[in-house]
Structure formats: C-alpha cells, structure tokens
Write a structure and sequence with these properties.
The structure is a homopentamer of 255-residue chains.
Chain A lengths: L2 H19 L10 H18 L2 H15 L8 H18 L12 H11 L4 H50 L7 H53 L3 H8 L9 H5 L1
Helix pairs in contact in A: 1-7, 2-6, 2-7, 3-6, 4-7, 4-8, 5-7, 6-7
Chain lengths: 255, 255, 255, 255, 255
Amino acid sequence: MSFSTFIGLFLGIAIVISAMSMGSSILIFVNIPGLMIVLGGTIAATMIRYSFKETLHAIGMSFHILLPSNDIKDKNELVDLTEDLLRLSRKDGFLVLDKQEVNHDFYRHGVRMLVDGYSQDVIKQSLMEENKLFVERATTSAGVFSSIGGAAPAFGMIGTLVGLIQMLSNLSDPSSIGPAMAVAMLTTLYGAMIANLFALPMADKINTWVQEESVRQLMIIEGLMAISEGRNPGMMRELLSPYLENKPSVEEVTA
Amino acid sequence: MSFSTFIGLFLGIAIVISAMSMGSSILIFVNIPGLMIVLGGTIAATMIRYSFKETLHAIGMSFHILLPSNDIKDKNELVDLTEDLLRLSRKDGFLVLDKQEVNHDFYRHGVRMLVDGYSQDVIKQSLMEENKLFVERATTSAGVFSSIGGAAPAFGMIGTLVGLIQMLSNLSDPSSIGPAMAVAMLTTLYGAMIANLFALPMADKINTWVQEESVRQLMIIEGLMAISEGRNPGMMRELLSPYLENKPSVEEVTA
Amino acid sequence: MSFSTFIGLFLGIAIVISAMSMGSSILIFVNIPGLMIVLGGTIAATMIRYSFKETLHAIGMSFHILLPSNDIKDKNELVDLTEDLLRLSRKDGFLVLDKQEVNHDFYRHGVRMLVDGYSQDVIKQSLMEENKLFVERATTSAGVFSSIGGAAPAFGMIGTLVGLIQMLSNLSDPSSIGPAMAVAMLTTLYGAMIANLFALPMADKINTWVQEESVRQLMIIEGLMAISEGRNPGMMRELLSPYLENKPSVEEVTA
Amino acid sequence: MSFSTFIGLFLGIAIVISAMSMGSSILIFVNIPGLMIVLGGTIAATMIRYSFKETLHAIGMSFHILLPSNDIKDKNELVDLTEDLLRLSRKDGFLVLDKQEVNHDFYRHGVRMLVDGYSQDVIKQSLMEENKLFVERATTSAGVFSSIGGAAPAFGMIGTLVGLIQMLSNLSDPSSIGPAMAVAMLTTLYGAMIANLFALPMADKINTWVQEESVRQLMIIEGLMAISEGRNPGMMRELLSPYLENKPSVEEVTA
Amino acid sequence: MSFSTFIGLFLGIAIVISAMSMGSSILIFVNIPGLMIVLGGTIAATMIRYSFKETLHAIGMSFHILLPSNDIKDKNELVDLTEDLLRLSRKDGFLVLDKQEVNHDFYRHGVRMLVDGYSQDVIKQSLMEENKLFVERATTSAGVFSSIGGAAPAFGMIGTLVGLIQMLSNLSDPSSIGPAMAVAMLTTLYGAMIANLFALPMADKINTWVQEESVRQLMIIEGLMAISEGRNPGMMRELLSPYLENKPSVEEVTA
C-alpha cells in the first residue's frame, strides 16, 4: 500500500464534493445517464484496446497499491531480514525458515521454494520469470489507466455535445436553457474528474511503483541466492549494497 | 478475433446511441451532409497519406481482429500442438501431417511446406520473410487508423465551422439559430465518435496485437524447425520455452 | 506520382466545397483579406524557419508526388529492368544501354554514367551522394510542410482574434454582429483546411515516400554495380533480393 | 540560489497582481473556496503520484534554488579553491584543512571526511553515492513540479465547470450571471497562474540546475582525490579541465 | 544573417498590422497594460527557467541570425578560401596570412592563432572547445525561445481571464461589454503573435542554423590543420570533401 496515494485519492474526492455542495444542493451534480455515457464509453474504449485479463490485472494492481499490506518497503529492512534468515539457515538448515515470518509476498514465495528443496538454479530462474512477468503486467496496467485517462475526457465531451445538440434542437422554453446546459456540462466534469483525480495519477503511480518493487524483487533474488549458498553475512550485505539508494552512513561502513 | 475488442466496439456504439435517443428523437442526430464532410474529409486525408493498398490492408486487419477466427491464441496450446505434430512425424513421416488439423493460418502454411518437401532452410527463410512482412503491414495499418483518429476530429471541426459561418451570415430568423447550431455541432460529434470509439483504440489494439502475434509466429517457426529435424519432444519444449510468458509452474519443471 | 495522394487531395477539396455551397452561396466563404492573413502569416513563419532554397525544394517535391510520372514504382519491375540491361550489356557492351528506355530518373542517370565510361567506384560514390542528398532534402521538405501545418491554424486563430476584436470594439449595429463573426471565423476555417487537407498529410506522405524511394535508389545502385561487373543474372537477383519486401513465392525460388 | 529565478518569480507575481488591481478592486480576484479546489485538487493529484518524502524533497529543492546561499557556482573558483586546499595539505597535512572556509556543502562534506582520516576509496565511493542520490532526488523533484503544472490547470477547469453548473442550474436572477461567471472563471485563472508562473518553469529550472550541480559535484570529487593523493597543482588543474566549459583562454594555456 | 528569416519576420508583422488597420483604426489593437502582462509574464517565466547570461546569449544569437553579416555561408567558398590561404602560406609562411581577408569570424580567429605561432595541437583543441561551447550555447538559446513561445500564449490567456473577470464582475453598463471583451481578448492576440510570428520559428531556426554552422566550423578546423601542416591543396580538398553536401559534379571529380 502507498499511504500517500490513498490519502490523495480521498482528499481529491472530498475537496471536489465539498466544492459541489457549497452554495447549492449537491444533487444538481448527479446525473445517471450522463455518468453512464462517460463511464460506459470509457470502458468500451478500454475494452477495444485491452483484453479482459489485462483490465482485471490493472484493477488488481490499483487495489494492491491502495489497500493496506504488510509487504516490507524499506530496502534496509529487507537486508536485515535476509541477514536473520541467513544466520538461521546457516545454524539450523533451510527447513527452519518455514516458521519465520517473511513480510513480503515475493520473498515468502522464494523462501518456500528453498524449504521445498528446489535447486538454486530452479529458484533463480523461476523468480526471474516471475519478476519479468510482474514488470510486463504492471506496464500494461499503467497503459490501461492511461487509456482511461485519455478516453474519459473524450467521452465527457461527447456527452456534452449530445446534450447541447438535444437542447439546441428544442428551444421552445427559454427558461429551460440554463438547467439543460448545466446537465450537458456535467459529462465534461465527470470526464475531467475521472482522468485527473484517478486515472492519470494512477498510471504514473503504477509506473514508478513497479520500478521500485522490481528493484526490491531483484534484491530478494540476490538475497535468496546468498542464503542458498550459505554465504557469510558480511559478504551478503556487500552483494546487496548496489540495490540500496541511501547506503548506511560512512561511519557504519568503516566502523 | 479479440472478443474484448468486439464487445467494446458494440458497447460503445450502444451507449452513445441510447444516450442520443434519451429525451429526444434520435433523428436529430442524423445529418447526411455533415456525415459526408467528416467521413469524406477523413478518407481524403488518409488517402493523401497512404496508398490504396495500405488502406485495404488496414481494413482487412481490423476485420481480422473483430471477426471470429479459430486461430490458436494460447502459446501453451501451440507447444502442445507442436508436440502432437512432432510425435506424429517422428512415427509416420511428414506426409501424415497433411491430415492434421492445424488451427493457425501461419502454422498451417508452414506445415504444408513441410509436407510439400521443401528444405528446412527454404521454409525458415520464407516464413521469416512472411513474419517481417506481417509486422510491416500491421505497423502501417495501425498508422492508417492513427491518421483516421487525427483527421476525423479535424474535419468535425471544419464541418462545424462551415455550419456556423452559414448560420451567422444569415440571422434573419432568430428562432432558427438553435437548430442550426445543433446541426453545425453534429460534425464535431461525428468526428469525436469516429476517433474515440473506433480509430484511436483500433490503432492501439493493432499495435499490441501485432506484437503478440509476431511472437507466436516466431515460436511456430522454431517449432517447425524442431519438427523438421525430428527433435526429441522434451528438447523442443525447452527450445520454445523462452517464448512463453507464464511458464509451467516450478513443480512441473522439476517433476 | 502517387495516385492515391492526388485523388485524396482532389476529393477533400471537392467535399469541403460542396459542403460550403450546400444551403447558402459559396461566396460567403470567400474573404480575400482573411485568406491573406492566413496564407501570408503561414508563409512568413515558414520563411523564418527555412531558407528560400529549402522551401522551393519542398514545393518541387510536392509536385513530384502529385504530378504523373513514368518512374517505376514496383521493385520487381526494377529487378526485371536490371536483368534486361544486364543481359544486353553482357552481349553488346555498355554503349548499347544508351538506347534503352529506363523509366526511372535516378536509374537513367546511373546508366548514362555507365555509358560515359566512368569507373565503378566513381559511379557508386556519386550515386550514394545523390541518394544521401535526396534523403536530406526530402526530410527538410517534410519539415517545411509540418511547419505550414502548424502555422496555418495559428494564423487562422490570429485572424479570427483580429476580426472579433474589431467587431467587439464597434457594436453600434447589432444586426451586423452575425455576419462580422462569420467573417472572423473564416480565417480559422482557412487555417484548419490548409493544415488538415494539405500540409499535414503531405508532410507524412513525403516522409513515407522518401523511405520507399531511397530503398529503390539503393537497389538501383546495387543493380548498376552488378551490370558494371557483368555479373550472372541469377547472382544479380540474389544480390537485390533483400530489397524486395514480398519476395517471389517459395515455389519460384525452389523451382 | 539562482538570482534570476528569484527575480522572475517575484516579477511575474507583481505583474499579474498589478494587472488585477488596475481598473477594479483586487478583491474580486480573491475567492477562498475556488483557491481551495485548485490547490487541494492539485495537492491530491500530486499525492497520488508521489510519496510524502518525494514531495518534501521537491519543496526543499525549490527553496534551495530560491533562497540565497554561499555555495560556489563558478567552476573556475572551485579549481582555485582546490589549489588552495591542495597547497595547504601538501605543506601541513590534511588536518589543517578543517579550519579552511569551504563555501560548498558537498565540498565541505568531502573535506571533513578527508580530515577524519577516511581512506580515498571510502571517500570516493561515499561521495559518488551521494551524487547519484542527489541526481535521482532532483529528477523526482522536477517530476513533482511537472505533475503540479499539469494538475493545476485541470483542477482550475474542474472548478470552473462546478461553478458554471451551479450558476446555470439556478438562473432566477439574471443580474447575478455576470458575477457568478466571474467567480467560476477564477479557478481557471488560479490554475493557469500556478502552472505558468511557478510549477512548469520550476520543473525546467530544477532539471537544468541539477545537471550543472552534478558536474560541479563530480569535479569536486576529482579535486578531493587529487588532494588526497597530494598531486602537483598543475596536474590537478589538468585533471579538472574537462569539467570547465569555458576554459582559460589560449594565452594562459600556452604561457 | 539569414535573409529569408529577416524577410519572414518583416512580412509576418506587416501582414498582421495591415489586417489590423483594415476596416478599423489600428489604435484599438494597442493596449499598454495588456502588452505589459504578456511581455512581463513571458519574461518572468523565462527568467525563472534561464539565467541572465543564457537569455542574453539567446538575444545575441537572434541578432546574429537577423542582422547582415559577411560570414561565408557556402561551404565550397570555404574550401576555395582554404586553398588560397594554403597556397599563400606554403609560399610565404604563416605570417603573411595576417593580411588576408577572411570573411568568417571563427576562421579569422583560427588564422590569427596560426599567425601568432601557436602549435597545431593548441589551435585544434582551443577551436574544438569553442565549437562545443557554441553548440551548447545555441541549444540553450533555442530553449530560451521555445520557453518564450510556450509562455506567451499562456500569459495571453491569463491576461484575457483577468480582463473577462473584471468585466463580468461589473456589468452595470451593457454597452461597455463589447469593448471590454475586445480589450480582454487583446492579450490572447499578443501571446499568439509573439509565439507564432517570432519565438517558435526563431527557436526552430536557431536549431537548424547551429547544425549548419557547426559543420562549417568543424570544416574550418580541418582546413586550418591542413594549412598548418602545409598539405598539398588536392589532398586538402579531399580531406574537406565529406563536409560538402553537394559535391562538385562527377565531371569535375574525374576530369
């Protein structure tokens, strides 16, 4: 979970809704047919571009980013966890790792393979594949949200055009022009909100998040290899150090 | 065929039409001269950019994606099919492959060449050329749809400008302003719909589809080479494995 | 000449003009000062960007694409022509090539050099230079049309702003507002038409055309080298084969 | 600090405010709810994209650029400083460097490590890491400002749509249309100002500034290595010369 | 100087001014506060992005392109000049070159270094540095004009929004709406003119011009090396030939 993403999404919706309810009833901003055009058209355009499976992956990924999870984010914690596992397995063998708490899905999967006795090569190859697949899917998922972010304003405009044409074709009652135009403009508002409050930032977030998570996964693979080879903990730290951005301060290194 | 693409196209059109028929007659959205400007102008701009042949290829490719086909999509199925063909040809020779059902145009073409007795080199070179040509044509086809997606809104705007100028030049009857503006805005609506419901998503779809199909074709070529050499099925599976994204699970690999 | 480009240009203009003359006099779409702002401004912006020579080359290249020419387009025809020339020169020497009809400017130039007795190295180097210069000029020409396609809508908008400001500054007669706005909007229409009916598609066309023509030129150079060396026709065909996209079918190759 | 950036920011705000106060009270341009939509929405969209830490770094970097600092900017001055430090340390050892005034944070940090007796390798590796981290953070910071520059106009438009829809839904009093539309347009103005006066130029500034500063840091590392090795000052100047854009004039080089 | 650039700039301004003075007084297009917002805001946004020095370089470069100069443009003339200098120096030594007229700043600078007796290596290195610095500065200068071309329309829109909001807040006198809107729209016009008549074409021009000039400078350096080595004129021509786009025709080469 990314806390900031969750707050941002909540805050954005809260601000726009409070602005809508200020000075008028918020009900004037609700228009089910208009919402259906924008949502339906956006979904249709996305379905033309992506398969059902790809779209589901994108939705799953957005939940993964928004919902709370225990997965370790800090790379230094991952190094510490690797040292714990390494010391344990050097003393008592791989089987004892099964009872350790490993707060990272990808890491846990790797540890289970170690416990199950797969050879080092099989573990590495299998996890590298998983990492590659993860990156591919995440890139496609970001593409799904980009597509939504492009289609929503377009269908917002299409909805507004439909509304304006209906209004202009039938100008018998001048007093209805204002409310009719208001309704027509609602779809443009819906499209702009879907794109700017949700889809476009989400696409960017997935893109940056997948880069960080992929680095963590590669680092975990390296750590698992060190555990499997029963390396010296100091050597393991050195092997993982290129993955850390902010290395421990100079003092610790040279101490 | 891509099922999701077909559904998306159908859904999008259904949603926009139902929105149009809600609250007014759908007939106010039909304007033949307006449709002619947008369609004609878009076709004209596309003809300047691409030759007849390229445009026809693009249309053919869009039908290929939209219409149902039996072509195998799953890469694992392709591996299984290759194993079937391989075992058969090792037992009874290449000629017996002629009677096998091969649900993939490209694969079928390769098998026929094998049956007809062409040398391995000739088959490989010929299919590689076909693959290259396929990728080139598909890229150009995606370009045709991109061009349509860019030209349609532009000619929608040109149509609206023409309509507005005609209306503004002759304001004798104020009550006709509304309907005249409605008609003028129709071309903008047509342009936005052509671009966002059809052309732009189609261009993206072709681009991603050609990448997947090209990988399948390269995999089929590799499989045909394995058949032609009468390789061991296990070895064939290993040769094809880099083309599979989600490899069989670790359990199967090490079993 | 590209037939499709010519038709597209003609069709686009015909459609827009027929739309203009429908329901009103086409004369309301003619405004000489407005046309002068858009054309003049576009020319001015292009002159700032490109030298006279570059602009003239661009115009020449657009005529080259639009006007009929006898230049061979089909690469297979070029191979056949090369074979004819090769057989002839092997029998009767290079001088006899002078009387052959060679329907391609670039090829004719090369043949004349062969007839004039230049050495193979000089011919190759000279034609390679010509090819490089051709590609450079064509890229610049496409840039000229891109610049026109970007400047025309901008000056269309500038013209409309000038017209609107003049109209708004002097609102004494309300009945003149409509026609004045119509005139002001004309420049936007002119700009959109110049960009979308002509300049932008032309820039794209030149870019794709130069790629194809450059491949043909490189192929002709290879062919001329084969002629100059008096190679075996079969060998010549093999040397040229990488330049052909759709190679002769497998049957012919192995026959 | 970049003096020109500070002046530019001040000048831009002054000009827009003076334009606002000309001919009317500036109070009509103040609308707290409108400002809240634009600021809040922009912050929300940025929080979805970036974590708190990244946003804080971006704010810190903008202050670093805007506020006055003593950090040496001129690369020639850095060379001169390096020569001073080099001569001093060759005469009296590294410890004496502690009392030297070093007007550059990064340089000062390196000198302190030298004084503290770290080995040359540790210093180089540690400073290289710091430089890499600096570049990464600055690139992310520029991305934060780009995100703000994209979100602000979008939420300006959303605010204007909300305002217009509220106004159009309730047209009972025609005399209130003007002021209500003015208020609705304020958010568009806020969004355009935030993007064009602050966020977009700042993103560009950070991008160019980080490039220059990174070169200076690499140069300082090279200089520290020369000091640590007790090199000849002339040799040191030669080692640093590739980092100088405008080298000392030819006369000095050959004198 | 680029003649076409100068004419284009003059022509564009003349056309727009004549369009403004047609049918109304040109005075309605003059609004000093509006001009100040657009110019001031654009300058402010550019100052945030670039330092004073960079902006001054950009202005200098635009004058260099617009004002007449004697600098040789034709590469063949440069070769001829090099041959003259070469023959002279081979006969009478380098000192006599001092009295030769060399119509190219960069070339003159190199010749003076030759006369002053600098070694070949020093001359080459110094001129290469100068060339690199020239390219860097020109790229930055083009960036300054791009920044102006992006900021001017944005501040034009900001000015128009300010004007519209002032007008809408105070609708007491309906007859003043037209002129007030005209004034508000002036800033949009100013912004569009600055961007499309001046800044954007200038940025493009500098980018293409710097490429050509840099090739000439590299060619001059090569020529100076040939002079300094007292090479044979024919050999010098061969050394410089790769820099010429349109080489002397085949006839001359083989004559």
